[in-house]
Design brief:
Blueprint: E1 5-14, E2 19-24, E3 36-43, E4 46-52, H1 58-68, E5 74-82, E6 85-89, H2 94-106, H3 113-117, E7 123-125, E8 129-134, H4 138-146, E9 151-158, H5 161-168, H6 170-189, E10 198-202, E11 205-211, H7 215-232, E12 249-256, H8 264-280, E13 286-291
Parallel strand pairs: 4-5, 12-13
Antiparallel strand pairs: 1-2, 1-3, 3-4, 5-6, 6-8, 7-8, 9-11, 9-12, 10-11
Helix pairs in contact: 2-6, 5-6, 6-7
């Protein structure tokens, strides 16, 4: 797989006039008032433009995409940033956003990028604005958990990820993790709490927090997660692993009946333990527990 790379220099795009200048190694030059800077990341399937949009509204974001759509394949609008934390327009593909931000930060997608690029997706601002959060997730998880009287917590961990990394390389492994986030978001969108659930990277696996989710709903998210991974049929492609030719995941699901009495750290410990139970049961399974 060809590595993505950053194109040197900055460009600008003006959503009002729908004009733009592509990045170049020399100085950007004078940009009209209201123009937004952007960087380009070149990938095997076409360029990605990462635009710093400073909380653009939906109309301006649409104008930016229409303007750059003839010269790039993907547009990621970066609405805010703070060190390693980013807020990305939710219309952007999560995998593309994670890879592009990783390249802009480090020059390539390296071993720790998903861990540091952290939390992703299924997060709403107000009633209509969906954004993707890519960054350290601790405060977001705490807020989602504490914002409800009860909560469901699901953690999904890819089985044999290190074998996958060793055989295909860390780049492929990190992209698989990013795709796992997208899979989790698809599951959450079909749940009863899709407008308030948080999906985030938790170390090198995916964590779902469902505010006000009941016990049955918590387990159904975990079951759907495992089943969707089975159906995705991601090949392991390792000569030494013949009995399980496709990647699977093990999921832990914990239902917390009273979040005021159970600290979020305790709930995370319990869901970690549930994942280990799922793996000991043979992997590709769900372990469920209640905290009442």
């Amino acid at each position: 797989m060809e590595r993505a790379r950053r194109i040197e220099g900055l460009g600008w795009v003006h959503p009002g006039s729908r004009s733009f200048v592509l990045p170049r190694a020399s100085a950007m030059g004078a940009a009209p008032e209201g123009a937004l800077p952007f960087e380009l990341v070149e990938r095997g399937d076409g360029a990605v433009a990462v635009v710093r949009g400073s909380m653009l509204d939906a109309r301006d974001r649409s104008a930016v995409r229409a303007c750059l759509g003839d010269v790039v394949r993907h547009v990621v609008v970066l609405l805010a940033s703070d060190r390693d934390a980013f807020v990305v327009d939710g219309d952007a593909d999560a995998v593309t956003a994670v890879e592009a931000l990783a390249v802009l930060r480090d020059g390539e997608l390296d071993d720790d990028v998903v861990e540091h690029a952290g939390a992703a997706v299924a997060h709403r601002r107000g009633r209509r604005e969906r954004v993707t959060c890519v960054g350290r997730e601790a405060r977001a998880v705490e807020a989602a958990y504490r914002g409800a009287a009860r909560a469901g917590v699901v953690r999904a961990d890819l089985d044999r990820l290190m074998v996958y990394n060793d055989w295909l390389g860390v780049l492929e492994g990190d992209l698989l993790l990013a795709r796992l986030v997208g899979l989790a978001c698809a599951v959450v969108r079909e749940s009863a709490v899709s407008d308030r659930a948080l999906v985030s990277m938790h170390r090198r696996d995916v964590l779902v927090v469902g505010p006000d989710l009941d016990a049955r709903g918590t387990q159904s998210i975990a079951d759907a997660f495992v089943e969707r991974m089975r159906r995705s049929r991601v090949q392991l492609r390792h000569d030494e692993v013949r009995n399980v030719p496709y990647m699977t995941l093990s999921a832990g699901a914990v239902w917390v009946s009273n979040t005021a009495q159970t600290p979020v750290a305790r709930a995370l410990e319990e869901v970690d333990l549930a994942v280990q139970h799922a793996k000991l049961a043979g992997r590709d399974r769900v372990a469920f527990s209640r905290m009442e």
